Structure formats: structure tokens, C-alpha cells
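Forwarding these from the shared drive since the link keeps breaking.
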Amino acid sequence: MEFSGFTREDFDVFLVEGLEPRMDALKERIRPKLESLGQYFAPTISVLTGEEMFVHVAKHARRTINPPKDTWVAFANNRRGYKMLPHFQIGLWKTHLFIWFAVIYEAPQKSEIAEKLLKRAEQIYREIPKDFVWSVDHTKPEMIKHQQLSNDDLIKMLGRLQSVKKAELLCGYTIDREETIKLGSQPLIQQIDEVFQKIAPLYKMAIS
């Protein structure tokens, strides 16, 4: 596997001004690394979920003015797309790396997925590690620490996912930029692998 880890220059791509210059920098510096991570982890996630997973590196093709503030590689059981399905992501903001299980607003089965997760809410609350985090909007870097949630808070988030059209829910782990840089290649891969082991059960609950 040709993955050398992420560098300060990779994170600083998100400081490049202008859509085209930033897109060029993303394509040159970060996309090859995300593609490597995608090819490496697709078989792992396929085994964890029992479904063949396909790799989707973000292209940001719809953007015409605002440069992307983050980028990612996604894994889903569909060759053609991932946004409409429960899926996994590895990606970067300028401040941190993220590893997510994600159900975003484009998913037409969002309400049914939320209902399945609600039935297992107590188990989810108990089994997600305390240092993991939640997000209710994949377009923003803000997160909620699992250790700061009550069981009722989690039920409310899942209820919102079920009833609000634009609601989203992501669960996973983040590593700040300096720690990501320090980890280099193999320790980072090991860390990502451990996170996928912990969030794969959410996927299985969502599709059961």
C-alpha cells in the first residue's frame, strides 16, 4: 500500500484561496492518499459488514464558487453512489481527520434507518466508546462527544433523524491534525481500522 500518512501541507490545502487553486491542490496532494486508503479499507469494511463495499472519493463536482472546506473517501455497497445509503467515510478538515459511519439527508430510507437504530438505542449508547463523537451535519466540523450525551440525548438525535427531512447523523472518531501528522502511516491505519471495528455494528443495525 502506497500511503505515507498525512502532512502539514495536506491540511494546509484548505487554506489555499479560490476554488480552482484549492481543487488543484486537493487533486494533487490529498486525493491520491484518499484513493490509497479507499483501496486498502474497502476489503476490511466488506468483511466487517458482510457486504461488498465500493470506494467513492469526493469529487466536489457541483461546486462553482466556494472551495471545499473538507474532503473524504466514502465506502458504500453501491458502485454508483453512496450519499443515498448508510456509508462510511475517512476524510480531512483543516483541523482534524475524521472516520465516520454516516446517514446523511440524501438517504431516502432515512426514517426507516432511524427507526431501526432507535430500537437499539440503549445498546448503541452502551457500546459506543466514550471518546467517540457524533455529528448532526456533515457540512460542519462541530461534533458532540459521546461521553457528554445522555441516553435521552441520543434518542432525541435518532428521533430527529427519523422525523426531520434534512436531519443527518454521523458517528465515529476524530484525530486532530498534529496527532494525525505525528502518527504517520501504519499507526494511523491501525487507528482507523480500530474505529471501523467499533462503528461497523451501527451499519449492520441500519440495514438489518
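-- next protein --
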Amino acid sequence: MSFWSAVAITLAGTGAGLINTIVGSGTLITFPTLLFFGVNPLVANVSNNIGMVAGGVTGSWGYRHELGGQAPALRRLMPLSFVGSVVGAGLLLVLPATAFRAIVPGLILIALVLVLAGPRIQARAHPEGGGTPTPAWHAPAMGVGVFVAGVYGGYFGAAQGVLLMGLFSALSLEPLQRLNGYKNVLALVVNFVAAAVFVVFARDHIDWLVVLLIAVGAFTGGIIGARVGRRIPPNALRALIIAIGLVAVVKLVWFP
């Protein structure tokens, strides 16, 4: 690997760490970059997943203030992300790429609709504001959604954050920035577990230099992303999620 290709991959990791912390879909930067420099697709996917864990750590830490007092909610959701990521990582190792990725654009579009319609759905479910009880079906629906997002994240990961934010926007009354903190923690769980699975069962598909370069970039990007993302107004954040989600759909459908 040349010096300039190493620099480009590191910068891609920085951009991905920044975008993942604010919205998600950072893999849409790193994965094509690795392919451009001749990295095998499976090696690129596995190595990228491991490297992006560093960005998840700094991004989650950057949202620690928004997550104050939210430990009970995270304890309910994190095991679902854990199990989902194990399933997704296993699918990556045994299924052809086209078997699962074919449904991904549809999932992302559903998530974008939920992000856009989230306030209206919340208003109908809580016509008198936050003082009304949350419908009983919200908790199991959120659990199923977090599990599905975990499966997808363990398998590929691009736009995992968009899926989670769509789910949270429709089913939770928490402020959007707090939900973004949830997203960062759950995505970190998924990436970490999937990375552990790959290290144990797919060592032959890991390029440790690529892992290092992306990790260094993503670590820095997570710090920057947390500082920037926490200052974005809710409506602007929704618009950014929708814009990046649409880019993800176009990328996955027309430029796989």
C-alpha cells in the first residue's frame, strides 16, 4: 500500500466516523474507498467493521451527557443488538452478499419514512403530549426493530444508524439528540460484537493495516462528529438523516 493510499483510507475513516456519529452510513465512504484501492470486498467489509469500532467508542462517549439517566433503557435494548449482530455476522460468513443486501434499500426507505413521519406518529399516539401512556405495542415493536437493525449491522452496516433513527423517531418521545445517543451506543455494540466474531472466525479475511488506518481515522471522526452533531437542531438533523439515507439507497441500488 502506498503512502497516499494509506492517507486516503485514513481520511475516509475520519469521514465515516464523523457521519456515523451524527447520522450513520459512514461505511458508504470507507467501503468504496477500500474497493477503489483494490481491497477484496469481503476483506474490505470485515476489516472496515473492525476499524469502525474505534469511532463508535468516541462517538458514544461524546453523547454521554444526552445519555445521562438512560441506563435502564439501554440495558433493555443492548442485548437485542448483541444477539442481532451475532446473527448478522454469521450470515455474512455463510451467505452470498446478494442474498441479504437485496432487501437493504427497502429497509432504508422504510426508515426514512419513519424519520419523516415520526413527529406525526408520536402526536397521534400521544394526542395530549408526553403525559399520555405509551401504547403497549411500542416496546415490542422497538425490540424487534433493534434486533433487525443489529442483524443488518452485523452483516454489512451501511445506514444502520438510519434504520435505528427511523425506528426511534416513530416509537419514542425522547428528544432526537438523546435518540442519537442511543443509536451510537447500539451501533457500537453491533460493530464490536461483529468484530469479535470476525476476529475469531474470519481471521483470514482481515487486513490489519486497513483496520489500523480506519480505526485511527474513525477515532478522530467520532470526536468531531459528537461535537458537531450535538449542536444540530432537531429539524436539521432529521433533514440530514433523510438526505444521507437517500444517498445510501442510490448508492446501494445503482452503484453496488
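The two ends are 24 Å apart (CA to CA). DSSP finds twelve helices and no strands in the chain.

- D.
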